[in-house]
Amino acid sequence: MIQQFMSRQFLTFLLTGGTAAAINFGSRIVYSFWFSFSTAVILAYLTGMVTAFVLAKLFVFKDTEQSVHRSALFFVLVNVVAVLQTWGISLVLAFHLLPAIGVEHFVDEIAHAVGVAVPVFSSYWGHKRWSFR
């Protein structure tokens, strides 16, 4: 299992996922002008998820034999788990852990960045196994 994380495909996944994560992160800042932090995290995740699907289909898992509809369905299911990870970690950090350790500046940004980074491995495994097999 560890070998699949030491492949060119995983590196490409990290690059495309990093692009989607940057879009996720940036869009959360924009969404925060109109929505609460919690809602902005979810909306940003959806924005990043659409970006991630397109990039993964084009560059990472381009040889999949599944239909786009089936891939999209599994992609959404895998991302339901990932968004719960992102949302939960972001909120725990922003409202509990970071304030408890005295962090006062860029709390939302730090919390969201960590929340976005955490599901990298579970997402790759899920997409490889189900979304784009």
TrEMBL record:
Compartments reported by the entry: Membrane
UniProt entry keywords in alphabetical sequence: Membrane, Transmembrane, Transmembrane helix
Protein's UniProt keywords contain Secreted: no
Broad class of where this protein is predominantly found: membrane
Signal peptide region: none
Keyword Transmembrane: yes
One Pfam family recorded for the sequence: GtrA_DPMS_TM
Spans traversing the lipid bilayer: 32-60, 72-98, 110-127
Membrane topology qualifier: Multi-pass membrane protein
UniProt-listed InterPro entries: GtrA_CellWall_Glycosyl, GtrA_DPMS_TM
GtrA/DPMS transmembrane domain residues: 12-132
Family recorded in the similarity comment: Belongs to the GtrA family.
Identification of the protein by name: GtrA family protein
Organism whose genome encodes this protein: Pseudomonas emilianonis
